[in-house]
TrEMBL record:
Keywords associated with the record: Signal
Name of the molecule in the record: M15 family metallopeptidase
Domain of life: Bacteria
Pfam families referenced in this protein's UniProt entry, alphabetically: VanY
């Protein structure tokens, strides 16, 4: 190789080297409001679990590690669309108002102990999962906080997740911190932080209050500004600080 062309090649590759890192690591992904509210057709991965690619890969690694320690990470729920969440909401609303005779506002308060207003579920993001231990046989509802206490069927699952989930970037969202408001303690609900933190950051910048007042779901005519404000503050934002 002649010296001249050698120098040219060096300078071209030198240039490429300085430019490429910026192209290879673009700034944070922008998510559309449809994606953040479960209204977009996003690409999901997995068979028994439906997650965004990165979250799915991390979950698969965590599942393998748990297996070798005798825990079967069984997915109860992962991605949920807006329509799916609306069906859950409407079913609960009908149950509380028509069957149990609660006033609409009391029914809404009861629903938001554990369930989200459609459009605000972290399950819309393809980053969050509800997990139990598939090896344990339990009676009744598997998503029952008592079943995760010491001496109960999911105690070993909880211990394993406490010690290992963060290695795979999965964090508990609704912790048992007594100072936390909003959704009650959910020892089964984990979130893949590298994706869900930027998603929450973007979601909270939107006018969630306005978006929710436009939605037509059962009982939404009883949504007041005050109710929606405290819902956003308590249920969406008063979560594990590590996920903010
Ligand atoms: Zn959940």
């Amino acid at each position: 190789m002649q010296r001249r062309s050698f120098l040219q090649k060096c300078s071209v590759s030198g240039l490429a080297f300085t430019i490429l890192p910026n192209l290879a690591f673009p700034t944070t992904t922008e998510y559309t409001i449809e994606e953040l509210m479960g209204k977009a057709n996003i690409e999901l991965f997995g068979k028994d679990v439906q997650l965004r690619k990165e979250a799915y890969e991390a979950f698969t690694n965590m599942k393998k590690a748990a297996y070798s320690d005798g825990i079967d990470l069984k997915v109860v729920s992962s991605y949920r669309s807006f329509e799916h969440q609306a069906r859950i909401w409407d079913r609960k609303y009908i149950n509380y108002v028509d069957d149990e005779g609660l006033e609409p506002l009391d029914a809404i308060d009861k629903i938001i102990e554990y369930s989200t207003i459609p459009g605000t579920s972290r399950h819309h993001w393809g980053t969050d999962i509800d997990l139990v231990d598939g090896y344990q046989k339990v009676d009744g509802d598997v998503l029952d906080p008592e079943k995760f206490e010491v001496g109960k069927p999911y105690a070993s699952f909880k211990k394993w997740m406490d010690g290992n989930s963060k290695k795979y970037d999965f964090y508990l969202v609704y912790t048992d911190n007594p100072k936390r408001r909003g959704f009650k303690y959910e020892p089964w609900h984990y979130s893949y932080a590298p994706l869900s933190i930027p998603m929450l950051t973007q979601f909270r910048k939107k006018n969630i209050l306005k978006l929710l007042s436009k939605e037509e779901i059962m009982g939404s005519d009883h949504f007041t500004t005050g109710l929606l404000r405290s819902y956003i503050q308590d249920n969406i934002l008063d979560i594990n600080r590590e996920l903010l």
